[in-house]
Amino acid sequence: MENKKIKREGAVIFSEYKRGDSINKLKEISRDDVLFELKESGLKGRGGAGFPTSTKWMLTAAAKSDKKYIICNADEGEPGTFKDRVLLTDYPELVFDGMVVGGFTIGAKEGIVYLRGEYEYMLADLELYLNNMRKDNLLGNNIAGIDGFNFDIRIQLGSGAYVCGEETALIESLEGHRGEARNRPPFPVNTGFMGHPTSVNNVETLSAVTHIVLKGGSWFRQYGTNKSTGSKLFSVSGDCEKPGVYELPWGTTISELLEKVEAKDTKAVQVGGASGICLNKEQFSRTLGYEDIATGGSIIVFNKDRDMIHVLKNFMEFFVEESCGQCTPCRIGNTKLLEGVEMIEKGEFTFRYINELKELGKTMQVASKCGLGQSSPNSFISILNNFSEEIFNQGNGGTNGK
Amino acid sequence: MENKDTSRAPVSQKSHVVEKPEHPEYIGGSISVEINEKKVSVPLGTTILEACRENKIHIPTLCHHDDLCVSGVCRICLVEVEGMRTLQASCAFPITAPIKIKTTTQAVRKARRHIIDLMLSEHCGECYACVRNNNCELQSLAKEYGVDSFTFGHISEPRYEIDNSSFSIIRNSDKCILCKRCVRTCIDLQEVGVLESVNRGDKTMISTFMDKPLSDVICINCGQCINRCPTGALQANDPSDQIWRDIEDPAKHVVIQTAPSPRAAIGEEFGLPAGHSMTKELNTALKRIGFDGVFDTNTTADLTIFEEGTELILRLYKALVEKDESVALPQFTSCSPGWVKYLEHFYPEYTDNLSTAKSPQQMFGALFKTFYADKIGVDPKDIVSVAVMPCSAKKFECNRPEMDDSGWKDVDYGLTTREMAKMIKEAGIHLPEMPPSNFDSPFGEASGAGLIFGATGGVMEAAIRSVVEFVTGNKIEDIFEKANVIPVRGFEGIKYAELPLGDVVGPVPGILQKLVPNWDWLKGATLKVAVVHGTANAKKVMDDIKAGGKFSQCHFIEFMACPGGCIGGGGQPIPTNEEIRMKRVEAIYAEDESLEMRKAHDNPNVVRLYEEFLTDGPCGHLSHKLLHTEYTKRGKYIA
After folding, report:
1. Could you report the per-residue pLDDT of A348-400, keeping only the tens digit for each?
2. For an interface test with A, which of B115, B116, B179 has the most A Cβ atoms less than 10 Å from its Cβ?
3. Of A238, A274, A298, A300, which has the fewest beta carbons less than 10 angstroms from its beta carbon?
4. Known catalytic residue: B593?
5. CB contact under 8 A, A328 and B94
6. What is the DSSP-derived secondary structure letter of residue A244?
7. Closest C-alpha to A136, from A107, A97, A104, A99
8. Between the CA atoms of A340, A344, A346 and A348, what dihedral angle is there, to the nearest 10 degrees?
């Protein structure tokens, strides 16, 4: 695996790192030091929700239980996201060292990687990598010679359900149940895997932690903006010359990003995957970051040749299929939104009904049980609002909008 | 119910238990919240729903059920919590901080209305063509929220096939709103696990293992899912059309037996509050409908005590005196057909422990087509025997192929309380207005012992009243005040009691003299008994027996499949919750206490039956032929 590695540029995640360095650093520092540096860094969860990592770990560390778990969420399922795949195949040292640091900090003896079913092809390599870590005392008992620090990692495969990227559905799946989100509260930091305090962190978050422990929170902070510290990996795909994974500081604008990936005649940019929002040209000056557009890093570029209603239909079909089906707003709501898209496609709709569907979308955003249903109407609302000219005034036979 | 904390239920389905603090006034014991700008104090951990109910604020619910653990999937109970981006499901939100709640804001009302509209868009079926018309939670919600049109359309063509393979339960997935109450009932409350959601997204549905028909899975027919279904997606298999036909047929002699639990609950179907026994009014109504004979199942409940009690004595005698190690002990009761099927599926190696005595329903059926037919001079082929039961499993029981010892089908139709009420209404009768009348001869009135079969612990209490008097020669009233055997009463999921028989024994009553020479072998013995209701509790006890624990040392255990016993059966009026079940039980115990005759062995009709018909006594040859049965080791894997 090592020799296949492509050299990528980046100030934080892709900066220099040697396997085991941050684990060895644990010999010198306490769990409080780790938590302090994390708080200093301002690191927020990189899966998309943006929950402060220091808070999550502090809560898990403070929870009382004989067993605790750290789970690496490698169920990278958001359409257009592939940064975790790169990290796992080319930079496993960042991910696994981050998990070890996490185990040390929250007091877990076991780490579990919930690996996306489609990533099964990596399993053998990753297992081999973990074995080597064990041989080198970076996993197992008294890790790195730290007395009493016992921690190991196992990998469990998912089965291809998008919802299992939601942390509580992921835990349900790990326990052998249907992948369905739980009620929160209680939160996993108190009642997680098998009822024990659990921290679920994204692959990229753990990779960032690995650097922060070694290089310090203030080092991390110097990148990005005030509220969005550090840098972010972006998975860029679609109509551009140079698709791929980019590490960019938070605060980058859409235009800057488009320039970097050499996109031409861009009409629309979908930020955050199917569950994200779709921007039109006028909005390309907006910035990527928690101040403006928070995202897990999926960027899909559409040029002038793309039909936006078709784009939207594709997203909605995805949600109709991938809703776990337990809560009403998400299960039936997405079906209704898709039906609405099909009506527009055929030119058989009323604006009154489409507006009702937008209102339904807003209800879904606040009424669904988990993040899936809360974010699935985003593309419906943003595409219909940002591309209304194209969708309602041309190309649909002129019979629409009765 | 205490059986919420079960091993098979997923963690997410487990309820959070709010322990009411002993002194809520202490710091941390209670918490101050604002509901609609009114300050109230609630125990820490109370859900928003409970807090609102406590303060007389109505929050609509669908997936929530008092008997079941939290689910939070229908989202109809959403409320606004200040500072939170999304609305919160009040049923699933434990209050642990001084939050501000708003229950009727524009956002809340809009969301609820949207959710109802979405449910209605996929709910196939018309209200007036539905068994739950006027008793449907979805219908009520639509009314509450003033739904006068289908905003998001309304499905008109059914998408699913109706599953009416089961003798007991019919599933119509087109009416299902996926609240998963049935799933939680089946997995959590009953620990059976026949129903679960399958597929994903818009293909999600409730189904059985490999989508097999209900008749081909390990369903125990308890019908608890029916009682908790908010719509008409689940209903019992209703035979009333055939019964009407038979009543009209002059060649048929249609008899009906009524069990005590339907009598204690049927008033609810006529708008009365729970806890009104309508035994004698029901007699009149049934006669007016046209039944040719109306009888009390308690008669054969009393008979069951003779048969099952004698069987227990014989088992104990064989084990203790003859040292026969093959005797299966503890003896389990067999009158709950849901429990019987549960055991056959889940613990088939223990079917020998089941009393071979048939249930009261089936005993009566066998008597109708033999003793009774003879008595009134009607050809048994022309007798139609109907049983009003609180139970959906009784429908399966009467269709068991082995239940034909009279040469005919012992019981032709099992009718639930709900179906009985429907027939009465159809006949133009308002039950509460009926004048009282008595049961018909030749069986007449029965004892309070048979009556209390309806409540959990009732069979045990009835057995104790008789066995103790038989063995010690003392009056039960000398041991338990007013003959109320309190240790086996109550809603605790598993009850255990020890009953020392004392050193003095009485003479063996005549009816048993052929079977045991004397009671000396029971001198100083202590009868160990247990009472279990709900199959989730049965699982705990059976696992304990398997492991050789405390319950394996019992002599006699009463098991009832349904929570609360028969009064909580799957054929009883909807809705159900612990309070309602408690009221029904109180009605039954009150009726028992009001009776002169409260012990099975005091029932002169039963005694006469042994003198005239079952002349070789309890567990004798004819009894064995007519009143006892055998069981099937079904196991969990059905070909």
Report:
1. 999 999 999 999 999 999 999 999 999 999 999 999 999 999 999 864 444 44
2. B115
3. A238
4. no
5. no
6. E
7. A97
8. 80
Q: Which of residues 434-453 of B touch A (CB under 8 A)?
A: none
Alpha-carbon distance of B126 to B222, in angstroms, equals 27
Asked whether the beta carbons of B517 and B545 are under 8 A apart, the reply is: no
Q: Which residues of B touch A183 (CB under 8 A)?
A: 12, 70, 72, 89, 92-93
Gap between the Cα atoms of B458 and A99, Å rounded? 58
DSSP conformational letter for A253: B
Best CA proximity match to B186, nearest among B350, B345, B389, B388: B345
**Cβ of residue B82 closer than 8 Å to a chain A Cβ:** no
- Residue B105 contacts A where some CB pair is shorter than 8 Å: no
3-state DSSP: chain B helix, strand, coil percent, rounded to 5?
Answer: 45, 15, 45
**Catalytic residue at B558?**
no
Given B566, B591, B599, B623, which residue is catalytic? B566
Q: What is the pLDDT of residue B131?
A: 95
pLDDT score, position B28: 67
* Cα(A174)–Cα(A196) distance, integer angstroms: 13
According to DSSP, residue B432 is labeled G
Give the gap in angstroms from C-alpha A285 to the nearest C-alpha of chain B.
Answer: 27
Chain A residues with CB under 8 Å of B72 CB are 183, 327, 369
User: Which of A194, A195, A320 is the closest to B201 by Cβ?
Assistant: A320
Alpha carbon of B258: minimum distance to chain A alpha carbons (Å): 41
Residue B222, Cβ neighbours under 10 Å: how many? 34
Q: How many whole angstroms separate alpha carbon B534 and alpha carbon A234? A: 55
Is-contact B279 B258, C-beta < 8 A? yes
**Catalytically annotated residue among B50, B137, B268, B311:** B311
Q: How many other C-beta atoms lie within 10 A of the C-beta of residue B409?
A: 17
Please identify which residue in the block is written with the tokens 């919750």: B577
Count other Cβ atoms within 10 Å, centred on residue B634.
16
Domains and CATH numbers, chain B: 2-115 (3.10.20.740), 124-236 (3.30.70.20), 251-639 (3.40.50.1780)
The low-confidence residues of chain B, meaning pLDDT below 70, are: 1-28, 639
Among B335, B554, B562, B619, the one annotated catalytic? B335
Q: For A192-236, how does the pLDDT look when each residue is reduced to its tens digit (9 = 90+)?
A: 999 999 999 999 999 999 999 999 999 999 999 999 999 999 999
Bridge partners of residue B32, in order along the sequence: B41
Are the C-beta atoms of residues A104 and A210 closer than 8 Å to each other?
no
Contact of A230 with A220, CB cutoff 8 Å:
yes
Whether the ω angle into residue A197 lies within 30 degrees of 0, i.e. cis, is no
- Chain A positions in Cβ-Cβ contact with residue B200 (cut-off 8 Å): 161, 163, 321-325
Measure the CA–CA gap between A66 and A281, rounded to whole angstroms.
54
All residues of chain A having their beta carbon less than 8 Å from the beta carbon of residue B151 are 356
Mean pLDDT of all residues in chain B?
94
- End-to-end, the C-alpha distance of chain B in Å comes to 35
* Nearest residue on chain B to A374, alpha-carbon basis: B86
Q: How far is B262 from chain A (nearest CA, A)?
A: 35
How far from B598 is each of B453, B487, B501, B604, CA to CA, in Å? 12, 17, 20, 12
ipTM of this predicted structure: 0.94
Please choose, from the candidates B196, B193, B292, B308, the residue with its C-alpha nearest in 3D space to the C-alpha of residue B248: B292
Residue B592, both tokens: 């028992």
- A339 contacts A150 by C-beta, under 8 angstroms: no
For the question of residue B445 being annotated catalytic, the response is no
Do the chains contact at A336 and B121, CB–CB below 8 Å?
yes
Domains and CATH numbers, chain A: 2-221 (3.40.50.11540), 231-303 (3.10.20.600), 308-393 (1.20.1440.230)
Sequence letter at residue B36: N
